[in-house]
Amino acid sequence: MRLCINPNCPIPDHPDNDNYQTCQGCGSELLIDSCYTVTKLLSDSGGFGVVYEAENPAGQPKILKVLKQDLNEDSKAVSLFQQEALVLGQIEHAGIPKIESYVHHTLENGITLHGIIMQKIEGVNLEQWINQRNGQPIAQKRAIVWLKQLVEILALVHSKGYFHRDIKPANVMLSPSGQLVLIDFGTAREATHTYLAKIGGIQGVTSICSVGYTSPEQEKGFAVPQSDFYSLGCTMIHLVTGKYPLDTYNPDRDVFEWRASAPEISEEFADLIDVLIARKPSDRPMNCESILKILKEIEHLDKLAPNAKTSAKRKSIKKAIKESTRKPTSPILLVVSVVVAATVGLGIGTAIKVSALGSFEEINFQLPTLQKKRLTPIRFLQGHLDSIQNIALSPDGKTIASASDDGTVKFWELEGGTNATIEIKDQGGWVRAVTFLSDRQIITAGQDKNIKIIDIASGKVVKTLSGHTNLVNNLAIAPASDLLVSGSYDNTVNVWQLSTGKLLRSLKGHTDKIWGIAISPDGKQIVSASRDKTLKIWDTKTGEPVKTLSGHLAGVTCVLITPDGKHIISGSSDKSIRVWDIATGNQLFMLTGHKEVIGAIAITSDGNYLISGGKDNPDSIHLWNLKTKSLIWDLIGHTDLVTSLVITPDNQKLISSSQDKSINIWELPKP
C-alpha cells in the first residue's frame, strides 16, 4: 500500500494509490526523492516529526521522519530537525542509525516538507521492552553490558563535538543482535555552545526536558556533556528497578532512593549509578572513558569468587569512581563569543572559568562583542567514495558538478534530489578540478597531468590538452576572452586558447606548487597562489609577472579577484584571509577567525560579502561582511577541510564541498 504523506490529504491510504505515481486523494507525488515508497505510518505523536516506514527501490525497509507541516516556518524547529541529519551523517557506529539522505518533498499545494531517510532499526525500544516484562528489573550482568554499549556510543558522539540531551529508555532501541541503538538525535547540540549561550544572556536556545531523565542544569537550559551522564544514570535506575525514576525520588531529601528496589545490584555498581546522577555536573564523571574504566573494574570484580572480592579490590573501584570526577588543578579560562538562534547586534562576551567537565559555576563578563549567527545546511549530497576537491555550477544554474579523488565527476540537480544524476569516470586517477564550458560540456583536470574537455551526455572526451608535467590542481576560464588557465604542482600556470586547445604560454616564477588561480573578468590579468607563500599577478597577454604579493606566513591555498576587478582576496594555511589592492599590490586588511587551514573562498556578486571555508570543526565555513570587516555567520556542517565554495548568481544559496566526501547546500541569509 502506497501512503501519501500530505497531512491534509483526505484519503492518504487511497486504495488506488498502488497504481499511480500521484495520490488519488489529493494529487501529491507519492514517491519521496523520486525513489522511496511510503508504506506505513508508525507514529504521529512526536513533538517534531511524523515517522513512517518506507521502502527503497530494492524493497528494503527504511524509516522516513517528516517534520510536521505546521513547524515549517519555525526556524528553530527546522534547525533541530536538520541537526538530526547533521549528527547522524557524521557518525558511523552499529549503535547509531545510518542516515541515507535529507529530502524535501513538495506537495500538490506547493508546500515543501522536510524529511530524513534513515536506517530502520528492527526491534523495540527499552521502554516497550521493560513494559512487556511487566516491570521486571534486569540483572546486573545485563545492566553492565547495556551501560557499556551506551557509554561507547556516547564516547563517539561526544568526540564529534555533540551531546544527545534526551537519553531515556524510549530513545534506546534493542536490536535482534542484542546491540543497543541510540535514536532521536533531533535534540543533539554542539558541545558547550548551548549552555555558554544561555549563560551569556543570549536567548533562543531550546531547552529539552524529559521529566524523570533530564538533569537539573538542563531543565534550566544549561546543558553540558555531563547532562547525558545524568540521563544515562536515570535510565539505568529504570532498568535495574523496573520503576519510573521519579517513583523512587524523595523530594524531602532531594535524592533518588532506588537501591532498595534493586537488591541484586552490587554496591560498586550502585555507586557508579549514583555518581552519574549527581546533582552538579562537576560531581559526575569527567568523560566516557572514565566510566568505561570503572565498568571494566566492576566486571573484573564480578568474575571473582566471593572470597576473592577483597576490601582492597572494592576500595580500588571506589577510588576510580572518585577520581572520575576529579577536575584539573588549574581551571581553563575560555573567552567565548557565542550566538545561537536569531538575534543580531551587540551582545555580552562571556569569560567562563570551566574545568574539563564543563562546570560553569564561575562566570565573568567582558567587553561587548559582535554576535554571530549559525546556519546548518538545507541539503546534504553524498555518494563520492573519496575527498571532493572541487565543485562547479552550470551556466544555467541548475546543475552541480563535483570532482573527486575517487576518480569521478558526479552531477547533481541544485533543486532536485540527493542522488547524483550522472557519473563520469575518469581513467587518469584523482580529479582535482572541474568547470563548465557550457551546459553540455565540462573541463576537468587532475592526477594524469592532462586537461580534458568532456561531453556530459555521452561522457566522452572531446579534446585533451597536454602540457603540464605534474598534477593539475586548478582551472579558471574567461569565456569572453577565449581563455582557460590551469595551475599545476609543476610550479607553473598555463594559459590556453579555449576554442582550439592551443597552449598560448606557460607562466613561470613560483618556486613551489600552484594551489589557486583566478582570472580577471576582462581576461587581462591572472593571479596565482602558491605553496611558496606568495601570490603573483601576471599580464595575460605577455605572460610576464606584474607584481609579487608577500605577507602570508604559510602556503596560499586559494585566491579570487573581486567582481569589480579592483581587489584580490587570498586564503592561506596560516589561517588568515588577506585583501590586496590589485593596482598597487598593497595589503589593505586581514581577516582572522579561522582556527585551522583555509581551503576555499567565494564572494557574492555585489562584492559585499565573503565566504571562507577551512578545517575548523564544526564551524568550518564563515560569512564575512567586507564593508565592516566582521565575521557575522558560522555555517555548521562539514567535518573535514572545505575544498570548494560556489555562490549561486542570485546570492541566495551556497554550495560547498569537503574532504569529508560530501556536498552541502545552504540558504544564505539576507543582508
Descriptive account of the structure:
The protein has 671 residues and is α+β, with helices and mostly antiparallel strands. Helices cover 16% and strands 36% of the residues. The chain has a six-stranded antiparallel sheet, with helices on one face. A five-stranded mixed sheet has the order 17-42-41-40-39, with no helix packed on it. The two termini are 47 Å apart.
What's the quick description here?
With 671 residues, the protein is of the alpha+beta class.
Topology:
Layout: E1 31-32, E2 36-43, E3 49-55, E4 61-67, H1 75-90, E5 99-106, E6 112-119, E7 124-125, H2 126-132, H3 140-159, E8 162-163, E9 172-174, E10 180-182, E11 189-190, H4 193-199, H5 216-219, H6 225-241, E12 249-250, E13 255-256, H7 267-276, H8 288-303, H9 311-323, E14 332-336, E15 346-354, E16 362-370, E17 373-375, E18 379-382, E19 388-393, E20 399-404, E21 408-413, E22 422-425, E23 431-436, E24 441-446, E25 451-455, E26 461-465, E27 472-478, E28 483-488, E29 492-497, E30 503-508, E31 514-519, E32 525-530, E33 534-539, E34 545-550, E35 556-561, E36 567-572, E37 576-581, E38 587-592, E39 598-603, E40 609-614, E41 621-625, E42 630-635, E43 642-647, E44 653-658, E45 662-667
Parallel strand pairs: 17-42
Antiparallel strand pairs: 1-2, 2-3, 3-4, 4-6, 5-6, 7-9, 8-11, 9-10, 12-13, 14-15, 15-16, 18-45, 19-20, 20-21, 21-22, 23-24, 24-25, 25-26, 27-28, 28-29, 29-30, 31-32, 32-33, 33-34, 35-36, 36-37, 37-38, 39-40, 40-41, 41-42, 43-44, 44-45
Helix pairs in contact: 3-6, 3-8, 6-7, 7-9, 8-9
